[in-house]
Design brief:
Length: about 210
């Protein structure tokens, strides 16, 4: 075990989260042991358990931090086109999904019925939906309600499709992203008075 460094409780927690994030991204959930987290962090198991009473608690904190960072990285700029905004948001999420494949599969498969993990994911999807609603031209309350419902369904579709793709890559990353964009455009077009993406789909290369 490397020599322990004296850290403030907040710094120690951040260190343990970083170690946990690294291990959960490198191996399936069931293969990550709290003993390994403690050893790599250079702390005793007792100290680790003071901060996180279980592996589940550590994973939930890691995943919450990741969700918060993804929201920070996903910026919907009203001056950009809908396709540009969706591309930026999807690329940010796909970058994380690919780098942290094991963690994403743990949250969506191993811990699929866990209420804590489900709340983290639901809160992030709700935040993304609210941001998208804030940049779309919604004429009235009826349109707002219809678009909100469509976006809620679309976000779940994207989540399921991306998790399946992490399990078995049946297409390229670009094809996956463009499928998600196309689904959003197709869902929103009938509900908006103005075409939200008049140049979608892009013309095929000559």
């Amino acid at each position: 075990m490397p020599p322990r460094r004296r850290l403030t409780p907040a710094d120690r927690r951040a260190q343990l989260l970083a170690v946990g994030a690294r291990l959960f991204s490198a191996a399936p959930y069931d293969d990550v042991l709290m003993e390994d987290v403690a050893r790599q962090a250079g702390v005793s198991r007792a100290l680790l358990y003071q901060h996180f009473p279980s592996k589940h608690a550590l994973f939930a904190a890691v995943y919450q931090q990741a969700a918060d960072r993804l929201l920070e990285a996903t910026t919907f700029d009203p001056s950009a086109t809908l396709v540009e905004q969706l591309t930026q948001g999807l690329d940010a999420h796909l970058d994380y999904f690919i780098t942290n494949r094991h963690a994403v599969l743990a949250a969506n498969r191993v811990l699929a019925g866990d209420p804590v993990i489900q709340t983290i994911m639901t809160d992030e999807l709700d935040a993304l939906r609210s941001r998208l609603l804030g940049v779309l031209p919604l004429a009235d309350e009826r349109t707002h309600a219809a678009v909100s419902a469509a976006l809620k369904a679309w976000l779940v579709f994207v989540q399921v499709l991306c998790v399946d793709w992490l399990t078995r890559e049946t297409c390229t990353r670009t094809e996956l992203r463009d499928t998600c964009i196309g689904a959003a455009v197709g869902a929103l077009r009938p509900l908006l008075s103005k075409d939200p993406a008049p140049n979608w789909p892009p013309a095929p290369p000559a």
